[in-house]
Write a structure and sequence with these properties.
Order of helices and strands: HHHHHEEHEHEHEEHHHHHH
Distance between the termini: 126 Å
Strand content: 5-15%
Strand order of the largest sheet: 3-2-1-6-5-4
CATH architecture of the largest domain: 2-Layer Sandwich
CATH superfamily of the largest domain: GAF domain
Largest sheet: 6 strands, antiparallel
CATH class of the largest domain: Alpha Beta
Helix content: 55-70%
Structural class: alpha+beta
CATH topology of the largest domain: Beta-Lactamase
Number of strands: 6
């Protein structure tokens, strides 16, 4: 028996040779009708060898077949282990690539799936409301066939989810699905399937905040996909979700920093404006007291601890002593209401009072600057 590189083909060949050696036994017929499995076939052949067959030649050939199946099983296990190890290492590389290229996540994911992870084709789509949009496609460089039309069709156009029932179900349930060759054209989006021509494919959602925000499609073109592929791409989708969350968070922080910087610049400009001397037109618009003899101009009260006040705070205190409101003080001194409030709070603190009434009482019990 020639050992094939495919365990599936080897299993089929082993069943055919067992039929030649043993005839159409019921158990052997069931093996032939089902999906061939090296372990099951080897166990059947070993049992028949123990039970004995009708000639030394058949016994020898059956023993050789069991030995070949043992060797093939070991090779298959070693191959699978090698594949899984390579996939794990490739997955680590993909995750590192995602961290380094979060701003081009779709391109990084599809390229790595078709190089590091060995898939035939990979497509990345974003989900927005009731639509999905394929935005990136990669094709394994070793894959034969012309997929130029497929690449051209991946242009970011929005596709209604109702036109792709399987994708709609994936978005709704946030669970992956796999389609074999038989079901490739059932409930799928035919325009892309016709151009891709896969022998089955796998679709996995990228879930952020309990919502499917993207879909990853992969296929092996001529080979079927296994549960291992589902788990592998699901892990990658999880890495994509984490990468997107981190990118969104960095973007939010950057936006907030920009807002803070803008506010600081605005306040700095306002402060510079306040520190500039008034021009004559600005002075003319201020509500200044008249200087004629009939005007009773308020005099600054001599108040304990008043020496701690600034010149501007003394002006505010003088007007406060007359019962002037913040708005009046603002007009008289040509400053904003907010600035008046700040001066008032500092005056309260320096004089050890907490209300305007206390300030008025304190001023009433003292003499004015003029000694009146």
């Amino acid at each position: 028996m020639v050992i094939s590189t495919s365990s599936f083909e080897l299993a089929e060949q082993a069943v055919a040779e067992l039929q030649d050696l043993l005839g159409n036994e019921p158990n052997l017929i069931r093996l032939a009708d089902g999906e061939p499995d090296l372990t099951v076939i080897r166990a059947f052949a070993a049992r028949k060898l123990r039970e004995g067959v009708d000639s030394p030649e058949r016994t020898l050939r059956l023993a050789e077949l069991v030995t070949e199946l043992d060797a093939a099983s070991r090779d298959d296990i070693a191959r699978r282990l090698s594949v899984h190890t390579a996939q794990f290492e490739a997955l680590q590389r993909v995750v590192r690539a995602l961290d380094a290229g979060a701003d081009r996540l779709a391109d990084v994911v599809t390229q790595e799936l078709c190089t590091s992870l060995g898939y035939g084709k990979a497509m990345f789509s974003v989900v927005r409301g009731s639509t999905w949009s394929p935005i990136a496609l990669a094709v394994n460089p070793e894959l034969t066939g012309d997929f130029h039309e497929l690449a051209t069709a991946i242009d970011g156009r929005e596709i209604a989810l109702r036109e792709a029932p399987r994708e709609a179900e994936l978005v709704r349930r946030r669970r992956p699905y796999a389609v074999d060759a038989v079901d490739t054209y059932r409930h799928t989006y035919r325009p892309l399937i016709d151009l891709s021509r896969p022998a089955g494919y796998l679709a996995v959602p990228v879930v952020v905040d309990a919502r499917a925000v993207a879909i990853i499609h992969v296929d092996r073109q001529s080979d079927s996909l296994s549960d291992t592929d589902v788990h592998l791409v699901a892990v990658l989708a999880g890495a994509c979700a984490s990468s997107k969350e981190r990118a969104d968070l960095r973007r939010q922080i950057s936006t907030r920093n920009e807002h803070v910087d803008a506010e600081i610049q605005r306040l700095t400009q306002a402060l510079r404006h306040l520190e500039q001397p008034l021009t004559m037109p600005e002075v003319a618009t201020c509500d200044l007291p008249r200087t004629d003899a009939s005007t009773d101009s308020p005099q600054a009260p001599v108040v304990p601890r008043a020496h701690a006040l600034t010149a501007r705070e003394r002006e505010v205190l003088t007007l406060m002593a007359t019962g002037a409101t913040n708005a009046t003080i603002s007009r008289r001194l040509c400053i904003s209401d907010g600035t008046v409030k700040s001066h008032v709070q500092r005056i309260f603190k320096k004089l050890g009072v907490s209300t305007r009434a206390e300030v008025a009482a304190l001023c009433a019990n003292t003499k004015t600057v003029s000694g009146g």
